[in-house]
Design brief:
The protein is of the alpha/beta class. The chain contains ten helices and 16 strands. The protein has three domains: 62 residues, no CATH class; 99 residues, SH3 type barrels (Roll); 235 residues, von Willebrand factor, type A domain (Rossmann fold, 3-Layer(aba) Sandwich), CATH 3.40.50. Strands 13-12-11-10-14-15-16 form a seven-stranded mixed β-sheet, sandwiched between helices. Strands 6-7-8 form a three-stranded antiparallel β-sheet, with no helix packed on it. A two-stranded parallel ribbon has the order 1-2. Strand 6 and strand 7 form a beta hairpin. It is globular and about 75 Å long. 24% of the residues are buried.
């Protein structure tokens, strides 16, 4: 290949083509645009200089870093609120200008109910509400309230509208007085004028029943306002024994004693044993279990890869005694069809009063013997089939289901896949979502039927809390999580949690 010499630096290797002499070019000069030009701005034109690219002071250097001391700290706010209320320790609920309730993280405060509900029961999302709708629209702030009717550690006075509380010779069989227009209950903020009271919500006037009438003082306050809880407390329990159907919803069922189902996962022996001990101590430990029981009943279910129903024997003609010869002992029925669960006996045969003469001995004996009855449980957990069975047992009256779960549901209805291995980071968010619509759909059905579900999780491996946790979230139950359950460490804690959840929800 011949060597190519480079072009000299002053020699253009690609010369421009010469113009064709036969083509006439327009070489007439263009006119300049000035004040006297007919195409210019015209006489009187004043040149306006262009502004600089940025207004204000010029850049003095790199932007300074954010001062951490100027950033609000949630930790400092919590600690400051605790220090503020630590010396006082008392919060009254009467409204005052500039008065702010303690934060939810400040627990060392005594609340005094003066006609408004305490923050234990209702807490607003803002310190105060806008006074007008126009101001609310301009602010654009979300307004709401967090309501906890079963707040912990607070005793609510119960008001029974009978002879013992009416201070009159006439007993009330229709419950407390209510507004004739909006049906609001009588409360401390209703005003009285002789034989009428004015509703604080709709401002309608309603006649005061004869049995509820009382003299007024010079300021229009009833003389018995301090003795009636409904006229001086913001939160009360209305006990309506003789009220009748007026206080039932349009589609509600008549009130009946509460029913509770305790379900134990026998596939995790240590956790199963701790759950039985916790329930025994909750029911019969210190005498608080039968506080306000009022005829409520419980049922016991065990499950692994199948569902085990314990049928209590009301009489020997219907059900036989067990192998130990105890006439009060329940009979075990195993339901192997976990894909289409059903109840083979009348529902009433599955419930028993744990504080009756025969029920106290029978329930305690069963709970003490349950760990020995399942020495070699089957692998697999049929949680979905169990919950479907419990729903069928409570669908006609509602109730509470307390489930002890020791492993991921792997068989039957609502079976969940094992934890994915080496899952990429972009799919990590899927671990916080339910992996199946079964549990959210079941929870919605339970909520419509008045069934609450509480979960106690004592797992050694991954259990998919995001999926099963939708049950207590949507039904108003509680979730207690004990990963890598240890009997000595977690047993007393779980017993305390069960006692709190059981006494709070099932004795109403």
């Amino acid at each position: 290949m011949p060597y190519k010499y480079p072009h000299p630096p002053n020699l253009n290797p690609h010369p421009e083509p010469r113009p064709d002499p036969n083509i006439r070019l327009n070489t007439r000069p263009r006119p300049r645009l000035n004040a006297l030009s007919p195409t210019g701005p015209g006489p009187g034109f004043t040149h306006i200089p262009q502004p600089p690219h940025s207004a204000g002071l010029g850049l003095q250097g790199l932007r300074p870093r954010i001062d951490p001391s100027q950033v609000p700290s949630a930790v400092e706010s919590v600690e400051g609120d605790r220090e503020h209320w630590g010396g006082r320790g008392v919060y009254t609920t009467l409204p005052e200008v500039g008065k702010k309730p303690p934060l939810a993280s400040t627990s060392e405060v005594e609340f005094v109910d003066q006609g408004n509900s305490t923050p234990n029961y209702i807490r607003l999302t803002t310190w105060s509400f806008p006074s007008t709708s126009k101001l609310a629209n301009e602010c654009g702030m979300p307004l709401g309230a967090i309501v906890q009717p079963f707040s912990d550690g607070v005793d609510v006075p119960g008001v029974r509208f009978e002879d013992s509380n009416s201070y009159s010779s006439h007993a009330s069989s229709s419950g407390p007085p209510r507004c004739s227009r909006c049906r609001a209950y009588i409360n401390p903020w209703c005003t009285f004028t002789h034989l009428k009271f004015k509703c604080n919500l709709c401002e309608a006037e309603t006649d005061v029943p004869e049995w509820y009438a009382s003299p007024l003082d010079g300021q229009g306050v009833r003389l018995d306002a301090g003795r009636r809880e409904e006229l001086c407390r913001g939160t009360i329990d209305l006990i309506l024994d003789q009220a009748g159907e007026e206080y039932w919803g349009a589609t509600s069922r008549p009130p009946k004693p509460q029913r509770c189902i305790f379900a134990f996962d026998v596939s995790a022996p240590t956790f199963f044993y701790a759950a039985c001990v916790a329930l025994i101590n909750t029911l019969y430990g210190d005498g608080d279990g039968d506080r306000g029981w009022n005829g409520s009943e419980l049922a016991i279910i065990t499950y692994d890869s199948t569902v085990h129903l314990w049928v209590w024997a009301p009489d020997q003609d219907t059900y036989t005694t067990n192998a130990h010869g105890n006439a009060n002992a329940p009979r075990l029925l195993v339901m192997p069809d976990i894909d289409e669960p059903f109840i083979p006996v009348p529902t009433d045969a599955l419930f028993i009063d744990p504080y009756s003469t025969s029920g106290r001995e029978a329930v305690r004996a069963l709970l003490e013997s349950l760990p020995q009855r399942f020495p070699s449980p089957h692998t697999g957990t049929a949680l979905g089939s169990l919950l479907t069975t419990a729903q069928s047992m409570l669908h006609d009256r509602g109730g509470h289901v307390v489930v002890f779960l020791g492993a991921i549901p792997s068989v039957g209805l609502g079976a969940l896949p094992a934890r994915p291995v080496n899952e990429s980071e972009d799919k990590e968010k899927l671990a916080y979502r339910p992996r199946t619509p079964f549990y959210p759909n079941l929870a919605s059905e339970c909520a419509e039927q008045g069934i609450g579900v509480s979960l106690f999780l004592g797992n050694d491996e991954w259990i998919d809390v995001a999926s099963v946790g939708t049950l207590p979230t949507l039904t108003g139950g509680s979730l207690f999580f004990h990963p890598r359950f240890n009997l000595a460490r977690d047993g007393p804690v779980m017993e305390s949690q069960l006692k709190e959840d059981y006494l709070r929800r099932d004795h109403v």
